[in-house]
Design a protein that fits this description.
- With about 270 residues, the chain is an alpha+beta fold.
- The chain is about 25% helix and about 30% strand.
- The protein has a five-stranded antiparallel sheet, with no helix packed on it.
- The radius of gyration is 36 Å and the shape is rod-shaped.
Length: about 270
């Protein structure tokens, strides 16, 4: 029955919104050996809050649990052929009185679920990662996530393409993980780009399929595909004289709704200014 009392206290201490605390007590019975009428005075003794040895040698193990308002559970192991109603009623009454006393002791420690959070509580939070920051957050081969979980002890579970659940064993682990996550996703706030507007971009890398460009400082480079570099079909950016460090003008067409990548075009401007 200590598990009933301790479990109720633990739930309230953890802030679980239970309706009422519950206490429990075990009642034992010892009868006079060889007596025909065990319900007569002097032939039996009812024990409150029995020990293991009293359960082992006694004639009954009667458990009662409940709230201040009533009984929520009963369980009995009876080792004699029969149990008179008088003894049953006395056992229930003694258990009810003991339950009330135990409940008062419990309530002197904590009366209702705790409202404020404790530092050693587990924490579960929802994390949203924009599509265009997903690669930076996950890292190559999942390196960033694996390192985050190994260093802080948190667990990440993916809900969908952009949302994750972060479970931390305590407040300290959550704060450490939160700092790492903010560093992974932090950058100077992306300027708001206008759909259809023309911007000057700097080429930072030449690839077979196109050029990688940045439109503003600290921006994650975006690919401009060969098909969007010129009105003519080209096989390599160098064929139209493009090189690293050059500035080109591009038209912005928003982000891809699936992967979050920028959609940029030089071809749509007409004649490019390099």
């Amino acid at each position: 029955m200590a598990t009933v009392c301790g479990g109720s206290l633990a739930l309230m201490d953890a802030g679980v919104p239970i309706i009422s605390p519950v206490a429990g007590v075990a009642i034992g019975l010892v009868t006079k050996q060889g007596s025909e009428n065990i319900d007569e005075d002097g032939n039996y003794c009812i024990l409150t809050d029995i020990l293991g040895i009293e359960d082992y040698l006694g004639d009954m193990d009667f458990k009662l649990a409940g709230t201040k308002k009533g009984i929520t559970a009963l369980q009995a192991d009876i080792k004699i052929p029969g149990l008179p109603l008088r003894i049953v009623m006395e056992a229930v009454q003694q258990a009810t009185d003991a339950k009330s006393d135990i409940m008062n002791i419990m309530c002197s420690t904590i009366r209702q679920p705790r409202a404020s959070k404790k530092d050693n509580w587990p924490i579960s939070e929802k994390l949203t990662v924009p599509a265009h920051k997903r690669l930076r957050f996950i890292g190559l081969g999942g390196y960033n996530i694996k390192k985050l979980m190994a260093d802080t002890g948190v667990q990440l579970s993916q809900i969908d393409e952009e949302n994750y659940t972060v479970f931390a064993p305590n407040h300290t682990a959550w704060e450490e993980a939160k700092e790492v996550i903010e560093n992974l996703l932090s950058e100077e706030k992306d300027p708001v780009l206008e759909f259809g507007a023309i911007y000057t971009a700097k080429i930072v890398e030449i690839r077979e399929t196109g050029v990688m460009v940045t439109l503003y400082p600290n921006m994650q480079p975006a690919l401009v595909h060969n098909s969007q570099l010129d009105q003519r079909k080209i096989n390599h950016p160098s064929s139209i004289g493009l090189d690293v460090g050059m500035e080109i003008t591009l038209k912005y067409f928003g982000r891809d709704p699936v992967n979050g990548r920028m959609r940029l075009s030089r071809k749509e401007i007409g004649r490019a200014h390099v």
